[in-house]
Design a protein that fits this description.
- This protein is mainly α and 355 residues long.
- The protein folds into 2 domains: 134 residues, Orthogonal Bundle (Farnesyl Diphosphate Synthase); 201 residues, Farnesyl Diphosphate Synthase (Orthogonal Bundle), CATH 1.10.600.
- It is built from 14 helices and 2 strands; from the N terminus they run H-H-H-H-E-E-H-H-H-H-H-H-H-H-H-H.
- The protein has a two-stranded antiparallel ribbon with strand order 1-2.
- The relative contact order is 0.11.
- InterPro entries: FPS1-like, Isoprenoid_synthase_dom_sf, Polyprenyl_synt, Polyprenyl_synt_CS.
- Belongs to the FPP/GGPP synthase family.
- Keywords: Isoprene biosynthesis, Magnesium, Metal-binding, Transferase.
- One of its GO terms (molecular function) is dimethylallyltranstransferase activity.
- One of its GO terms (biological process) is farnesyl diphosphate biosynthetic process.
Amino acid sequence: MATAGVAVANGSGGADTTAAFKEIYSKLKEEMLEDPAFEFTDESLQWIDRMVDYNVLGGKCNRGLSVIDSYKILKGVDVLSKEETFLACTLGWCIEWLQAYFLVLDDIMDNSQTRRGQPCWFRVPQVGLIAVNDGIILRNHISRILQRHFKGKPYYVDLIDLFNEVEFKTASGQLLDLITTHEGEKDLSKYNLTIHRRIVQYKTAYYSFYLPVACALLLAGENLDNFGDVKNILVEMGTYFQVQDDYLDCFGDPEFIGKIGTDIEDFKCSWLVVQALERADEDQKRILFENYGKSEPACVAKVKDLYKELNLEEVFHEYEKESYSKLIADIETQPNKAVQTVLKSFLHKIYKRDK
């Protein structure tokens, strides 16, 4: 359900922000372990303690940290008050909890082996499919955290609606991905740019790009209904980010990006394969149909050779240039200068990234 970590804005107080963010995690977890709504046994407390650490921690926390950085930019300050820092960090952690919930279930659906350099949670001895319930608990923690710290705030209902809406969009994008990629026989003819775009927008862009900024806007007292264009720009940015990810999966340096790409072997609905299908003649299509989705190195090599033959590296660089120009133009039409700064900070972190 998730993609690679999203590199986003990190304000002037990067190290301080990260330290404050980590400190607040411990408080939020403690509250979950002391939640009076359930009579925990010692064993269940130990389980939740370990489960939350294992799944919520370990990522780069870029989505969560960007709530704080975006909020600072919107307020026009370098330093937030203690209360503002706490609320911004708490919303950031809610996004990290959401990410953990998605990943726990996603790894089961994909039958994955590892996540963030360690075994997927459901592969940990004694966990197995208890992980499904753990995912549900992680999702419920978000509601508990929001209720505890935001009930009574004028934007509380908007926050609940926002998380519900983004979760629904992400789960629906995941469904589309699963039935397109995994259902029945492998059929490349199902893949096209429209399907790819829809999967990416719903599965990744809303929760990775729109959600952190929407949280910051609500904290700043804004009405999200006035920021439809901002949502569209961020979703477009998320789409561009995933196209980069698809490109790097094939053409990136594994030593540098820290992982070996497997989109070809995994029969992913990747931007590269849909571009290849659009450009290939009948003979080239036959090569794709015969070799895509197979794990034999010779089959993978044939697909990569075809990508090179179709000049997809150049196609990507052209797409990247056009996307950047369009995004900058759209950002600069925004009437709010602080919002422009937030959007540009996101874009400049991901433009021409190589990992």
